[in-house]
Hints:
The chain is an alpha+beta fold. The chain folds into 2 domains: about 250 residues, 2-Layer Sandwich (Alpha-Beta Plaits), CATH 3.30.70; about 55 residues. Strands 1, 2, 3, 4, 5, 6, 7 and 8 form an 8-stranded mixed sheet that branches. Strand 4 and strand 5 form a beta hairpin. The longest helix has about 30 residues. The N terminus is likely disordered.
Amino acid sequence: MTDEHNKKQTVHYCAYLVAFFDILGQRDKMSIITLPPLIENEDTIDKFKQDVLRLHRNVQAFRNFFSKALNSFAQGGIENNEIPEQAKPLISKLREHPITYRTFADSVIVHIRLKGDEIQYAGRSMYGVLGAAAVTFNSCMAMGVPIRGGIDLGFAMNIGPDEIYGPALASAYHLENKVAAYPRIVVGHTLVSYLKKLSDSSPTTDTDIEKANHLLAKKSLNLMTVDDDGNMIVDHLGDYIRNILQEILVTADVVSKAYDFACSEYKKYRIVRNEAPSIGNGDALKRCALLADRYELLIKYFKKHLHSWGINDRS
């Protein structure tokens, strides 16, 4: 760490909520882009630029969806009729707690600092990240852009402007890269335990901030469910999203398009998987078989919720 950095920023070590998201399939699509020839050809170079920009639009779409969802959640979490009138100024403090996110290649990293007394005002931000993750997952899937993610609570250091590094980041990345396996967002044990502790325990004092955090923890847990493999995931099609948020951010049309995309991906890879025994078993075929299995799991999750969204099973 340079002296110049130390002069600009006080380095601290504290708890963070960290979310790590990855846009799937970008590398495969990038690998088939035709590179411009050594002898410059205007048409070929222009096509190269357009192909790269087309893929980057997926990254930009994720940013836009997530940003819009976060802004919407900034106005929610605690309704006016859920807290006493004299506690209304507390809402402003909850909404002001910063949420930082940045992009790296095809990944998006989100973090919330939980340093000292700040943690008592972070409940709405945690709720916002979980809710925005659910909304963004549906919106991206609907436009054919699958995402995978991991969210957890842990410790890290701020090592640069809007950048952290440490076990909290490693945990979120591990959940995305190793645990999630297919398009879904896995929530880590530490974050779940923290929210359950806030949700299950009665406020020790009669302060409005404790009441608010108790309520926000319950609502955050409503955004999660236990998946078939025992992992806790963001429940992007669950009752809470459908009943509370769909009027603003998630519609049945978006969910229907997301489901259609999942089905089309499954069918595409299933065909190759079924043909593998007769045409060989190379690495590419193994990967297609793996992807077919993974999209089959995603479709299984969708099917649990289609009826409640008023969507017919078209698989």
